[in-house]
Write a structure and sequence with these properties.
21 strands; 3 domains; single chain; 399 residues; 36% helix; Helix Hairpins; 5-stranded mixed beta sheet; Adenine-n6-DNA-methyltransferase TaqI, Chain A, domain 2; alpha+beta; globular
Length: 399
């Protein structure tokens, strides 16, 4: 069957998100019942997008637009040409385009997978001097290779099997994460730990526990960025983490890798596996990650290194997760809000007794191992899908 070249507006409706307000942080526009999708939400989504960090009020909706479930979101600023299909009705700003498929002409899943193939081309196409951007006009000039609708359905169904498995694993990760946080809160916020009924409180903490600062119990450090002027510092085999890769999860791979020479000749440092990272700069302040392998980081990450099992990495991670809003409130600077390593080091912290920490580790470590294993499964599923993707989307492999 013949594949044809089509423009996006020939197979459905394309429109731009609406967000007319300035400044963007006008508080009366937020906190209502209407999901407000941002470019980062699209970037971190899988096939379907149902998670969001902000909502619009009635006032927010009045200056925006509610897009229907099934709309394909396409980012045109910050993260170029990332895509996800709305799993809910939602608003989004003018940095996101919405595509409503004509169901007689295309399968929206197929169009999304076409964007996965063409994303690099779009990024090259949208290169600007100040900041990359992809306008609606530019987008509509790019041709898509489209087979008959029946073939689109078959291709999308094959590829979506991988995405469905990834999404199921992601749901399991969310449930396990919540269970781990509930254990932490029960034991160390509400002090309902094993044996609490028979433990005296001394100076506001259970007897045998220690009060201090985070730096009294953990080692902290920060990383660095090897000079971009030296190409020999990059494309090595040492994982190098940037704050945008912190997503409240294990980090099992990195976008960029540096060389041994870069480690020797820059402020970048190699941190051990299970080091907890917290973002200190800009919009990512308070974001967390755990490196699953030895890795270096840029200077915007504060590394929290566990010295021994009496101060376990999982305890520091859950502690910092609880303190995320506090860190955001402590951010400094007029133009760009930042925190620094000293602020993290000076956070008030309580460390439980060795006995309670040992019991906690026995309980919590299986949760963290489950999360890591599910993330590794998802990475393998994505790799398998991405190998099959170009062959299906060009007709090299028939369905």
């Amino acid at each position: 069957m013949k594949w044809e070249t089509k423009k996006l507006n020939e197979i459905g409706f394309v429109g731009r998100g609406k967000s007319r307000h300035r400044p963007r942080d006008a508080s009366h526009l937020y906190g209502g019942e209407y999901p407000f999708i941002q470019t980062a939400d699209v970037k971190h989504s899988d096939l379907y997008l149902s998670s969001y960090s902000k909502t619009y009020s009635e006032a927010g909706l009045a200056q925006s637009k509610l897009w229907n479930k099934g709309t394909l979101c396409i980012t045109i600023a910050a993260n170029i040409a990332d895509t996800a299909i709305l799993g809910i009705d939602a608003c989004f700003p003018d940095s996101v385009l919405g595509f409503n498929a004509d169901e007689n002409k295309c399968d929206v899943r197929f169009v999304k997978y076409q964007f996965d193939i063409l994303q690099r081309r779009y990024k090259q196409f949208s290169q600007g001097a100040a900041q990359d951007n992809l306008s609606l006009e530019k987008l509509l000039t790019v041709p898509l290779l489209v087979p008959p609708l029946q073939i689109q359905h078959k291709i999308a169904s094959v590829l979506s099997v991988y995405d469905d498995l990834i999404e199921n694993n992601q749901r399991r990760i969310v449930l396990v994460e919540e269970a781990a946080r509930q254990v932490y809160q029960e034991w160390f916020v509400r002090f309902q730990f094993p044996g609490y009924e028979h433990t005296k409180m001394v100076d506001g903490v259970p007897n045998g526990w220690k009060k201090g600062k985070l730096c009294d119990f953990y080692t902290t450090s920060s990383g660095g960025t090897p000079s971009r002027k030296n190409p020999e510092f990059y494309n090595g085999n040492i994982n190098w983490v940037k704050t945008k890769e912190l997503n409240e999860n294990f980090i099992i791979d990195t976008e960029e890798k540096i060389t041994e020479d870069a480690l020797r000749k820059s402020s970048a440092k190699l941190f051990p596996a299970r080091t907890v990272l917290v973002a200190m700069y800009g919009a990512t302040i308070g974001k967390l990650g755990i490196i699953s392998m030895p890795a270096a980081t840029n200077q915007a990450c504060c590394a929290i290194i566990s010295p021994n099992l009496t101060a376990h990495y999982s305890y520091s991670y859950l502690f910092l997760y609880e303190r995320k809003q506090q860190l955001m409130n402590l951010s400094l600077g007029a133009a760009q809000k930042n925190i620094n390593q000293d602020i993290v080091k000076e956070l008030d912290m309580i460390l439980p007794s060795e006995q309670i920490m040992g019991i906690f580790v026995d309980v919590i470590e299986p949760f963290f191992e489950t999360i890591l294993n599910l993330q590794i499964q998802n990475q393998k599923l994505k790799q398998a899908r991405d190998l099959l993707l170009p062959k299906l989307m060009t007709g090299e492999v028939l369905v």
